[in-house]
Specification:
Layout: E1 2-9, E2 19-22, E3 48-58, E4 75-79, E5 91-101, E6 109-113, E7 121-122, E8 132-139, E9 145-150, E10 156-166, E11 182-192, E12 209-215, E13 223-233, E14 239-244, E15 257-259, E16 265-272, E17 274-275, E18 286-294, E19 299-309, E20 318-330, E21 346-349, E22 358-369, E23 374-379, E24 391-393, E25 398-406, E26 412-416, E27 422-433
């Protein structure tokens, strides 16, 4: 099997082209040689601890739950506190990949802290028989439990754990390393299989493994995880993409995003990294591995929107979950200062932000197409508009997904559509604040 390597520069241009080398010549097959945990100078509350993706719930085979589908308006509880690397206490929220599959009717899934209402996270709409994966950040309920509810029909549900946010320092003693702060970046594509230099634009072939590296300058030595959006399109068959650190040669039993033939799908992923060792273009940089697990090729684009540090950088933002998921923008009603559906650039305000130290907001962002193909980009004022779109919707589609959006000191965001017009709805899940 061949691996292909592409080095993406966040401080400069993306390197066009890729070089195929023998598998195993780059990313180490052993855990990364991280230095000893730095001494804590402040509280780690709100810091993130990344994990290799691990499956913790699967109704198809009985992992963590009875092996039967969830019926209409039925719920299941999932134990996450004290399991699969999550401490039993001192955890504020977990980050998971929530997948619906083999549903008998159009549906949506809701994930919420057990025993609490208001902090519910609802996935995007899922067509009957389709697969859909969404990265979800949800607070833990009493006893470290979360609850998943199915809206309609019967459906199989799969949950993969990606990491967790620390509530206080009591959890840190149980970890083999310290958690880190979040650093937002202007979104930049670091891997694009549609580029002519990569396989002449032919895409990532069936079961092909790709190693992706991002140049972050001096921060590269302190990166524990990359915060990304991954898009698959131009697909001939149903399949899924799995992203992991690359510390193991084989991918974990987890999926990052699921796609079907002829579709285009995007999902966020927080992926742990492994330093590149040996003969590879990313030598000395942190990177991760992804695999196209399908019978056919797919066009895959990876955009980096931020990174999680190793706990030694004092500028990392800390996550604070909101007590209730709160709608902050709705162009249909003018909420957030929106004056119309998104077309030309307009300024909206995230009124949910209550402190001046907030640098970014974890959201669930929905774009409702008004007719033809529509996109929307959200970014902070006084920064360059990113090339990567926050959300893209086809004619008549409603497309929803997670997005971390930077805000300025007045909690403002710029919104613009480069193609078509559509309504924008933004629900805030939590904030990333300066410590």
């Amino acid at each position: 099997m061949l691996r292909n390597y592409l080095l993406g520069g966040l401080a400069g241009a993306v390197v066009a082209g890729a070089t195929a080398v023998v598998a195993g010549a780059s990313m180490a097959a052993t855990p990364p040689p991280w230095s000893a945990p730095p001494a804590a100078t402040t509280s780690y509350a709100g810091a993130f601890y990344s994990l290799e993706p691990v499956r913790v719930f699967d109704t198809r085979d009985g992992t963590g739950t009875p092996g039967t589908q969830i019926g209409p308006h039925q719920s299941r509880t999932l134990q996450l506190g004290g399991r699969a690397g999550v401490p039993g206490s001192g955890v504020s929220a977990v980050v998971v990949n929530l997948t619906a599959t083999r549903g008998t009717a159009p549906t949506a899934l809701t994930l919420s802290p057990s025993g609490r209402r208001g902090a519910d996270q609802t996935s995007g709409d899922v067509a009957a028989g389709a697969d859909r994966a969404d990265m979800v950040t949800v607070p833990l309920g009493a006893g470290g439990l979360v609850e998943v509810v199915n809206k309609a029909g019967s459906v199989d549900v799969v949950v993969d754990l990606l990491g967790f946010y620390v509530a206080d320092d009591s959890a840190v003693a149980a970890m083999h390393r310290v958690p880190g702060g979040y650093h937002p970046l202007s979104p930049r594509d670091v891997f694009d299989s549609t580029a002519y230099g990569y396989s002449r634009g032919a895409g990532v072939s069936a079961m092909q493994t790709v190693d992706v590296h991002a140049a972050l300058g001096a921060a590269s030595a302190h990166v524990r995880a990359l915060v990304t959006t991954i898009t698959a399109s131009g697909t001939a068959y149903t399949g899924h993409v799995t992203a992991w650190s690359g510390a193991s040669a084989s991918p974990p039993r987890a999926s990052t995003l699921n796609y079907r033939a002829g579709g285009s799908v995007t999902n966020m992923a927080i992926v742990p990294v492994t330093p590149c060792a040996g003969a590879c273009p990313g030598a000395g940089l942190a990177g991760f591995t992804l695999q196209n697990r399908s019978s056919g090729s797919a066009q895959i684009v990876v955009s980096v929107v931020g990174y999680v540090d190793d706990g030694s950088l004092t500028t990392g933002l800390r996550f604070r979950a909101l007590d209730r998921v709160t709608r902050v923008v709705d162009t249909r009603t003018g909420l957030g200062g929106a004056t119309s559906s998104v077309g030309q650039t307009q300024t909206v305000s995230f009124a949910v932000v209550s402190v001046s130290t907030t640098g970014a907001v974890m959201t669930r962002t929905t774009l409702l197409s008004a007719g033809g193909r529509t996109d929307v980009t959200l970014w902070a004022p006084a920064t360059d508009e990113p090339r990567s779109r926050t959300r893209v919707a086809g004619a008549g589609e409603s497309v929803s997904g997670p997005a971390i959006i930077e805000v300025d000191w007045l909690h403002r965001v710029l919104a613009r559509s480069a193609e078509g017009r559509g309504d924008l709805v933004v629900d805030a899940v939590g904030t990333f604040d300066r410590p």
